[in-house]
Amino acid sequence: MPGAGTRTATTTSNPPARLLDLTRLISRVGRGALTGVDRVELAYLRHLSAEPVPLFLLVKTPLGYLLLPDGSGPDVLSRIDEGRPWGALDPLGRVRRRGSLEYRQALAYLRRNAVARCRRTGLARMLRQHVPAGTSVFNVGHSNLDDTTLGALREIEGAKISVLLHDAIPLDFPQYVAKGQPEVFLDKLSAVARYADRVIYSAESTQKDLARHLRHRLPAVIAPLGVEPLIPEALPADLTPDRPYYVILGTIEARKNHDLLLDVWEAMGPSPETPALYVLGRRGWRNDDVLQRLDAMKAAGYPLIERSALEDGPLATLLKGSRGLLFPSFAEGFGLPPLEAAALSVPVLASNIPVMSETLPEFPVYLSPDDPYSWRQVIEAWSVARPTLRLPDNLPDWEGHFRIVLSKAKGA
């Protein structure tokens, strides 16, 4: 497997090795565009793979755990980032047909290149055998926050475990998540409290939200997530706009509040003067009424264009040409789409929720997520004349995030 190549150090007090849990990102292979949390795990893979510190990758699969050795990061990254093929199925992949072909090929690749593998009960022993004492562990995808995985990682002598918690939405807004998820998430927080050495938060408001639910107070670091520059590329022919338009970006789920925008578009009517709305994101959960309404309005001729998956290049082009990004969400852990829009100088109309005013204080126009009348007024005004808004002085970037995360505690 290729080595890591030239790497640039972030801190002079490096640990003997790092280990990144890559379970979430691998589970997304073959399932379309990455979500916000997926992108965070990908950013960690990119950055830690380029550091001079040895990096191990841990992946939980349906059959157990796989441990990939130092030097694996760049090769795995090229297959996720650049679309390099994962290679042929192995005998196990041909027998077990659960998941997409690409996902099964990814698992076969991981099995071929793993330095070790084990069933659930052998994880602690495998880690002690292959991972150096004092290793710094990162879990940033909300996967494997349980006694089995974190408890085994804790048995690595001198290990330092950092967990990035993205939000408290399952506990503070249970009406927006799948049944049973609040209980599962509370169990995850309990495991974090038992085994983690520190928690990483992307915003102060997120730390305050989660502090109400963590049983023990853990050392914390606040490191805003980075905004990746989106490079515009040509649009598919079926997405070429024929009128002024807006974009809403994100999974179609209840907390994203697509319902408010459907109210606005219904009030404006299906006329040629009505601006278009590009609804970009896969269909989520507990949102059947909104999905049925969206389908009915599209069939009735409203200018609503839905696309479940769109590559970053065409997405950047759509955003850049729009009258604005609409972000009427009821709850967010960080809210990356408004920051990505701001980086492209695209106006943002957003909900007045605490995390938005923290991460992007003066750039958006803020409105209540319960006031479709005011949203319609602004949307109609921007359709006539796109506003010129003062760009934020400093958008967060990944270099800044990792400068905080890898230097705040010795040995990270």
UniProtKB/TrEMBL annotation:
GO terms for molecular function: glycosyltransferase activity. Pfam families: Glycos_transf_1. Keywords: Transferase. Residues 241-360 form the Glycosyl transferase family domain. The keyword Membrane does not apply. It comes from the Bacteria. SUPFAM superfamilies: UDP-Glycosyltransferase/glycogen phosphorylase (SSF53756). The keyword Iron-sulfur does not apply. Signal peptide: none annotated. Transmembrane segments: none annotated. PANTHER family: GLYCOSYLTRANSFERASE WBBK-RELATED (PTHR46401). This is Glycosyl transferase. It comes from Actibacterium pelagium.
